[in-house]
Amino acid sequence: MAQGDSGREPPPSGTAPEVPKVAEESNCAGLPLELFDSDRSIAEDILKVFQDKSVAGSGHSLTTGQVLEKLAVNIASHHNDLFKSLLKQMCVLTKSQTKNSPGYWTLRKEFWPRR
Question: How is the chain split into domains, by residue range?
């Protein structure tokens, strides 16, 4: 194997990675296309919940408790680190100024649905 050769075949010329339906329906610039299917499913679930105005409102925001309730409960323990990483890439955490108030996560603008 040549130096720098990963041992993987390059994709056939003229083909592109499959774009998931949720990515086609929303502006998801920055979402890595090279995720495994199970990993991509986690990213899509994050998008779906934060883009659902009945759940996250028009500001596409959830408290940390809501993130745990709506998303984290469905994540297998071996995917916890991936979930946290994707959440941090796709959302911004705003910490509360008061001790007993929750922080909230807001979907980054580049992931908001197109109008």
Answer: 36-109
